[in-house]
Amino acid sequence: xxxPLKNNIKEKILVTTATLMQNKSFNDISLAGIARAxxxxxxxxxxxxxxxxxxxxxxxxxxxxxxxxxxxxWVENKEKDTSISRLIRYVLERSxxxxxxxxxxxxxxxxxxxxETLRQKYIxxxxxxKNTIRDKIIERxxxxxxxxxxxxxxxxMDGILIQNQLGNxxxxxxxxxxxxxxxxxx
Length: 186
Description:
Layout: H1 6-20, H2 31-38, H3 42-48, H4 52-75, H5 84-95, H6 101-112, H7 116-140, H8 146-166, H9 173-185
Helix pairs in contact: 1-2, 1-4, 4-6, 4-7, 5-8, 5-9, 6-7, 7-8
């Protein structure tokens, strides 16, 4: 029998950790617990990951990459209405969805609390998203300030995510998104 491929082991670690996080907080999950649930040795786990934050980053990065790929696929689909108002709505709705929200918030917290490697990775991901969104905005509105609008969307989506994760009953994300679309596209 052939040895498992490196990517298969990494993927198994990521899937196992994400599954564990459905029932436990990330702080309550140990590397030993991840190894046990993934049915691998701790040594194998440490070969791929030195700490939990790196696992969390990869889980979140995979999720954010999927969001980005979905966005590009959607915006380049000639059969869809990808006007500037629909583009803004799409970014805010998809990026502030509750799934993986707690992961993103935990990652941001770790990044601003002194984990310099994580902070740099997070900033790189923000720049990538900002540039991707900016380019699509400029395609639709060449005279717009694509940098400003893309940063506005990214910071707005983070705010929506926080309010949704808090379960703030006074915050209506759908209404907020609609009003934001109208405000930006006036």
